[in-house]
């Protein structure tokens, strides 16, 4: 993301055109790489720490769960921005994926009923809980649509990856 922002700076923000433009069919593929693009260094810097922290904590669940959560959050975030965003705007940035990681970490313990995951959820909520307000249309120029979609993606990923754990019965010890 940092290399792409450097390239975007050198090319007078030419990469910004590869963000998601709502309801423009030709922009649907942009859903896949829009999270890698940012509208300036401030935007990238603001996203970098939560992306790194929440991404690493999500990765600790295992690389496959991290990939599934990343892909689902990316696609649902992008589709939500594409469907609900204002016409003539562009959406880019990794914040939708950040919201996916956040909600994944918050709800996976509910689906799995594992105390360690619930403790992590409490810590994540204490540190990043206020970020959840970003799913509401409170600030001009901020895609609450992408945030909402990413949050839904994280919940769906947690449900897909951890709901079966809830149905498992503890194994009986044979005597």
UniProtKB/TrEMBL annotation:
Subcellular location, principal: membrane
Membrane topology: Multi-pass membrane protein
Gene Ontology terms describing biological process: proteolysis
Top-level taxon: Bacteria
Signal peptide boundaries: none
Record's keyword terms, sorted: Hydrolase, Membrane, Protease, Transmembrane, Transmembrane helix
Cellular compartment(s): Membrane
Record domain Peptidase S54 rhomboid: where: 31-163
Transmembrane segments: 39-59, 66-84, 90-111, 118-136, 142-161
GO MF annotations in UniProt: serine-type endopeptidase activity
Keyword Transmembrane: yes
GO CC terms of this entry: membrane
Protein's name in the database: Rhomboid family intramembrane serine protease
Any Pfam family the entry gives: Rhomboid
